[in-house]
Amino acid sequence: MAHFFIWAIAALSIALMLVRPFRIPEVVWTAAGALLLIASRLIAWRLAAHAVAEGLDVYLFLTGMMLLSELARAHGVFDWLAGIAVEQANGSSARLFTLIYAVGTVVTALMSNDATAVVLTPAVLTAVKRAQARPMPSLLTCALIANAASFVLPISNPANLVVFHANMPPLGRWLAMFAVPSLVSIVVTYLALRWFSRRDLSEPCHAADGDHQLTTAGKISLYGILSVAVVLLIASALHKDLGLPTCLAALVVTAVVVAYERASPVPLMREISWSVLPLVAALFIIVEAVKTAGALEMLHAAFVHAMQWPATASTLAVGGLIGFGTNLVNNLPLGLIAGATLQTVPGHAALAKAVLIGVDLGPNLSITGSLATILWLIAIRREGLHVSAGQFLKAGLIIMPPALMLALAAGCWIGR
């Protein structure tokens, strides 16, 4: 009975977070669910505290990215990038869409999918408004490419680190394993999304309306974002956690900009959506409770059963199971659970590739799939826009399954 209540509270908390009844902030619903689990002793408070502490690297990473994002917004970087995008699109919605998709691929690969959600989405919204284009294709691009390109490199998704734990392959081995599946994922997602958005993309948009200059503070902010990408690559190569280097680099950039302008950092700090951090912490508590409710045992049994099948069938089944499962419990916690489970399964290396592709690409089915998608949802709501769970699911049902199956098939082909 306790397991039933844990699953029920977890599902209800996530559903209310997405629906936001009475426009109550997302963090209220996840925090309420986490506190209810603790108050009802469905999870021990020590275990809950441990779950929150385990997310420290994620909190630091998000803090750094939110600082950079607000710096870029406040000092015109997004307006500048939007002007370039609109100019290059030259009145074509399809060209604007393709340009945004390409930039999203690069940002995700080099700075992680969370960076695409937090940093790129505001820039895209600015570009779409300036071009007076239909927003849905570009909005979906930010969400979908954040997951489709998130296994190009180990740093492209925090979930990559939790799936492999201490067994992270060297960069050369990683590229041999995931370069082709990543390419398939990116291309298939692009083609499917472009087909899904064909009507919106057939309409023209406005061309550029003049020169766009970037201020000195804006240039410092832009260089700061680029420097963080370098820091992430170095930290990944040294097998270090990414959160602290990202946060420290962002604080240095912020200090330089504030000192240059001789301004107070308080107005900047007030504009940041700090509620994201307790929201994520509450999600970690909820997931830890779900793990105690039998999630590890169920996944272990599924892996052992799949290992008895032929290699291709096993890969497709495990990757598909994990991919669709991310939409029930979110990919970061499922990555934690799957990574822990893999260590208990003989011959787990054969399944690791399928698990990671499923963890990274599966969330493109629904808004609940990944932390990046939730951050994207918060970012667009902040700008007064709204994409419902049904709208996202309608696109996800068309785009995610073929991309996932073909990426898994490509992984099987490479593994021969």
Detailed description of the structure:
With 416 residues, this protein is mainly alpha-helical. The protein has 20 helices and no strands. Helix 1 (2-19) packs across helix 15 (276-306) and helix 15 (276-306) runs antiparallel to helix 16. The longest helix has 31 residues, at 276-306. The radius of gyration is 21 Å and the shape is globular. The model has no long low-confidence stretch (mean pLDDT 85).
Element string (H = helix, E = strand): HHHHHHHHHHHHHHHHHHHH
What global shape is seen? Answer: globular
- Uncertain residue ranges: none
Level of helix content? over 70%
Number of helices: 20
**Rg to the nearest angstrom?**
21 Å
Mean pLDDT: 85
Find the count of extended strands (DSSP E, 2+ residues): 0
Question: Which strand-content bin applies to the residues?
Answer: under 5%
Derived structural class = mainly alpha
The main sheet comes to: none
Spatial gap, N to C terminus = 46 Å
Features:
single chain; 416 residues; mainly alpha; 20 helices; 0% strand
Question: Topology, please?
Answer:
Blueprint: H1 2-19, H2 26-39, H3 45-54, H4 56-74, H5 77-89, H6 93-111, H7 113-131, H8 135-148, H9 158-164, H10 171-196, H11 198-201, H12 216-237, H13 243-261, H14 266-270, H15 276-306, H16 311-329, H17 331-342, H18 349-361, H19 371-382, H20 389-414
Q: What's the short story on this structure?
A:
Helix content is 77%, strand content 0%. It is an all-alpha fold and 416 residues long.
